[in-house]
Design goal:
Chains A, B: It holds the Pfam family AP_endonuc_2. Chains A, B: Keywords: Isomerase. Two copies of one chain form a homodimer. The mean pLDDT of chain A is 97. The first copy, chain A, is of the alpha/beta class. Chain A starts with 8 loop residues before the first strand and ends in an 8-residue tail after the last helix. Chain A is globular, with a radius of gyration of 18 Å. Chain A has one domain: Divalent-metal-dependent TIM barrel enzymes (TIM Barrel), CATH 3.20.20. In chain A, helix 4 runs parallel beside helix 5, helix 6 packs parallel to helix 8 and helix 8 crosses helix 9.
Chain lengths: 279, 279
C-alpha cells in the first residue's frame, strides 16, 4: 500500500468513468481508498440495493451522491417533475448512506436568458426541497460551480451565495460542497470557508487548474496546475475541518482516456500528503 | 449603409485579426463604423504616428488601447521593466487619442501559485502607474476578466474589486472597462455598474456567451448566445451611460477564420439595435 493514511480520502466516481459501479468499488478499495462519491448513472446501472450491499461489504463510506436533477425549467409541470426527481434522488442517497446530494442545479432554461429568474427558481426549489431533505436525513450539498458553467450546468456560482442560502435554510437541510476548481480564483474563498466552518463543509473536492486549459472539461490532476493546494489545506486544518477529501476529475481529453487503475495509483501519490488526518 | 445610428459603435480590432491597422480602419469606416479599439500588435506594426494620422484622416474615434503589459513578475527588475513598459503604452495611447489603456494585468507569475501575492502586486503596480496615467491624460481602464482567465491572463476578476480600486485611486487615473463576457454571470454585475455610474464606465464591450463553449477563446457574436443584452443595455441607459459600445470577439475557431468584411457586416446587423443613442 501507499504509506499514506487515506482514511479521509474518497475518489469521485466521475474520475474513472470507464469503470462500472462494482469495478469502481473494487478498484478503489484494492488500492486502499475507503471513500467514494457516487454518480447516479453508475448507481442506476448497478441498482440501489446492489450498490448499497456492495459498499457495505467492501467497507466503504460514501461522501456524496452526484448530482441533483437540474431545475432549469420554465414550464411549471416540468419544474414540478424535476423537484420530485430530486426527492427520489434524496431517497437514493439515504439508501446508500450518502450524507448529501450534490446540488448541480442547471444553468439557464432552454430558450431563456433571464438569469435573475433562474436564480430565483433555484432558490425556490431549494426552499421546497429542504424539509424533505431533513425528513430523510440527507443534506442538500450546495456546490458553487465555476462561473464558466453558468450558462449550462449551474447558475449557482459563488461560495458566498451558497453560504447565504445555508444561513437561510439551516444546516440540518443544507451544507457546503467546496471544490478548489470552482472557487480557487475567488477572493472570498478563504473567508467563506471560514464562515461556513467545519460543521457546514460537507466534503471538499481536489483537482487542479491547468494552464493552459483546453476546454471546459479539462481539469488537472492534483499537482499539475496552479492551485496552491497545501495553502488551502492549511486553511481547512485551521478551521477545524475533519471531513472527506475527494478527488474529482472531469478530463475528457486526458484522464478519462486512461486506465482507471493507473489514475487511482497516481491519485494516491499526488493526494496522499493532502488528505492526511489533522495533526 | 445600415440604417442604424452607429455613432457610439466601435469594433475592437482583435475581432478582425486578419486585417492590418490600415485595413481595419478602412474596413470599419467603409461600413459606417466610427469607433475602434486599437491593439498594440497592429499599432506597433503600422507605427504610432502613421496610425494617429490615418485615424484622424478617417475621422475615427478611439475607444481604448488594448492591452497593458502583464505585471506578473516576481523578479523586481522584470517587474520594474513591466511597469515602465506600461508607461510607454500610456504614452502610445495619448499619441493616438485613446482615452484609456485596458489593463489586462496577467495571471500567476511563472512557477508561482501565490494568488494573494499576485493580487497585491497588481494593486501596487496600479498605485504606481496612477500618477503617470493622470500626467499623460490617459486612464488605467480596469477590466475585470472572467475567472477562467485567472491562471494566465488576469488575476483581476471581479467588477466589485475594480470599483474598489477606482475608489482608492480616483477617477482621474482609473476607469472601468466592462465586458458582458466577463461579468454576465456575476450576481453583482448590475449593482456594480450602478455603483460605477456613467462617469466611471469608460467603454462597454459586447459579445455573447455560447452554450456550449468549446474552448477559452470561443466568444459568440451578439445574439448567438445566452446573455440578455437588451436588459443590460437597459441598465446602462437607466444609469445614464453615454459612452462607447464595442464589439470584441475572441473566436479562434469561428469568427477569426472568416472574412473580416463579412464579420463587420454581421456585427452591424446584430449590434445596431444595441448601440443606438439614448432616447
Amino acid at each position: 500500500m501507499s504509506g499514506y493514511d487515506l482514511s479521509r480520502f474518497a475518489i469521485n466516481q466521475i474520475t474513472t468513468p470507464k469503470w462500472s459501479m462494482p469495478q469502481a468499488i473494487e478498484g478503489y478499495v484494492s488500492q486502499g481508498i475507503p471513500g467514494i462519491a457516487v454518480w447516479r448513472n453508475f448507481l442506476d446501472d448497478h441498482g440501489v440495493e446492489a450498490t448499497a450491499r456492495h459498499l457495505r461489504d467492501a467497507g466503504m463510506w460514501v461522501a456524496s451522491l452526484c448530482t441533483s436533477a437540474w431545475v432549469n425549467e420554465t414550464d411549471p409541470a416540468r419544474l414540478r417533475a424535476a423537484i420530485d426527481t430530486n426527492k427520489r434522488i434524496l431517497d437514493q442517497a439515504a439508501a446508500i448512506g450518502a450524507p448529501c446530494v450534490v446540488m448541480v442545479v442547471g444553468g439557464l432554461p432552454a430558450g431563456s436568458k433571464d438569469l435573475g429568474a433562474q436564480r430565483a427558481r433555484i432558490h425556490d426549489a431549494l426552499v421546497e426541497l429542504a424539509p424533505y431533505a431533513r425528513s430523510v436525513g440527507v443534506k442538500l450539498g450546495l456546490e458553487p460551480l465555476h462561473p464558466m458553467y453558468c450558462g449550462d450546468r449551474s447558475a449557482m456560482n459563488l461560495i458566498t451565495e451558497c453560504n447565504d442560502t445555508i444561513d437561510a435554510l439551516g444546516d440540518e437541510a443544507t451544507s457546503l460542497v467546496a471544490d478548489v476548481y470552482h472557487c480557487w480564483w475567488d477572493p472570498a474563498f478563504e473567508r467563506e470557508l471560514r464562515r461556513a466552518g467545519p460543521k457546514r463543509i460537507q466534503t471538499f473536492h481536489y483537482c487542479d487548474w491547468l494552464v493552459p486549459t483546453r476546454n471546459l472539461r479539462d481539469r488537472g490532476m492534483v499537482g499539475d496546475g496552479v492551485i496552491d493546494l497545501p495553502r488551502i489545506r492549511g486553511w481547512l486544518d485551521d478551521i477545524g475541518y475533519d471531513g472527506p477529501f475527494e478527488l474529482e476529475l472531469f478530463s475528457e481529453i486526458d484522464w478519462w482516456e486512461r486506465d482507471p487503475a493507473e489514475t487511482v495509483r497516481i491519485a494516491i501519490e499526488r493526494c496522499g500528503p493532502l488528505v492526511a488526518p489533522r495533526k
